[in-house]
């Protein structure tokens, strides 16, 4: 159960696979080479997971901040992101990386070298500790772990920033505004009986459609100065809704293309919308009509 003992065996597996790869002629047996590469990937992933748990146990208050992760696109935030970073560092150091510009590769190569050297030092120190005192952590272990954690975080941020467009502070703030809007929408929907707590606790699939639909109504009508404010330009709006800026304007303006639907649901409103003073369809809805609209948006249709 001791983490240092788990590290010892995980480190042994990595070393064994590396030795097999080094002793294999890839051109003579390409299939076996691919099998060993996959084994190396899995064993390194397990090794990094054990080191991560050791850092949480050994230096919990000295970990480098990972606040920068909020800047990353959501599709990059996967469980094995650390293993991808290690593989990228190895490729950069070997000069075989093709996804980056040459200037970015040259800039990242020193960081990749420092990271891999730090990892080797961590493996050496932890291996010695596991053989001598597997129940405690020495100051030398703490020092190399702190250094490795810092270098890993710095490389991760630099590498991802070179590969994809990370979110700016303004975009992060706009995303937080959308989160607040969705939370306010859910609270209001629960209060009005559009949703139930059981639906939320049970992760009802329909909510994936219902909550964004209700959030659009809330953002345009109830919180018009919030993140869906049409007084701002599309560039100032969160990327969640900016592609639909013109559509959001149509929902509010009198030239909205839902004439047949509008007349069928609200015959009285159709006359009002022809008035120049009543430009916004949502603003002229009565409380009953707004409730009818929102309940319709909560259906699966």
From TrEMBL:
Transmembrane annotation, as ranges: none
InterPro entries listed in its UniProt record: LST-2 (IPR051118)
CC annotations in GO: early endosome membrane
PANTHER family: FYVE-TYPE DOMAIN-CONTAINING PROTEIN (PTHR46465:SF4), LATERAL SIGNALING TARGET PROTEIN 2 HOMOLOG (PTHR46465)
The protein, known as: LST2 protein
Source species of the chain: Crypturellus undulatus
Taxonomic path: Eukaryota, Metazoa, Chordata, Craniata, Vertebrata
């Amino acid at each position: 159960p001791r983490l240092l003992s788990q590290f010892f065996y995980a480190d042994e597996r990595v070393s064994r696979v590396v030795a097999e790869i080094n002793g294999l002629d890839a051109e003579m047996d390409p299939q076996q080479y691919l099998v060993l590469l996959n084994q190396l990937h899995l064993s390194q992933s397990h090794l990094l997971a054990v080191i991560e748990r050791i850092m949480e146990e050994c230096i919990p208050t000295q970990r480098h901040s990972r606040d920068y992760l909020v800047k990353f696109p959501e599709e990059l935030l996967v469980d094995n992101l650390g293993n991808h970073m290690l593989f990228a560092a190895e490729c950069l150091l070997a000069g075989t990386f093709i996804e980056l510009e040459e200037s970015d590769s040259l800039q990242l190569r020193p960081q990749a070298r420092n990271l891999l050297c730090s990892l080797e030092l961590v493996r050496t120190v932890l291996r010695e500790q596991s053989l001598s005192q597997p129940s405690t952590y020495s100051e030398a272990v703490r020092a190399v772990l702190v250094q490795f954690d810092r270098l890993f975080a710095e490389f991760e941020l630099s590498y991802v920033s070179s590969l994809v467009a990370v979110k700016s502070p303004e975009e992060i703030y706009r995303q937080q505004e959308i989160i607040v809007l969705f939370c306010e929408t859910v609270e209001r929907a629960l209060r009005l009986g559009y949703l139930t707590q059981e639906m939320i606790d049970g992760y009802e699939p329909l909510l994936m459609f219902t909550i964004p639909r209700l959030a659009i109504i809330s953002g345009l009508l109830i919180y018009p100065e919030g993140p869906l404010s049409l007084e701002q330009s599309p560039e100032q709006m969160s990327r969640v809704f900016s592609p639909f800026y013109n559509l959001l304007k149509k929902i509010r303006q009198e030239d909205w293309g839902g004439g047949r639907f509008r007349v069928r649901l609200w015959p009285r409103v159709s006359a009002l919308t022809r008035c120049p003073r009543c430009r916004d369809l949502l603003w002229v809805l009565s409380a009953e009509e707004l409730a009818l609209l929102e309940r319709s948006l909560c259906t699966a249709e």
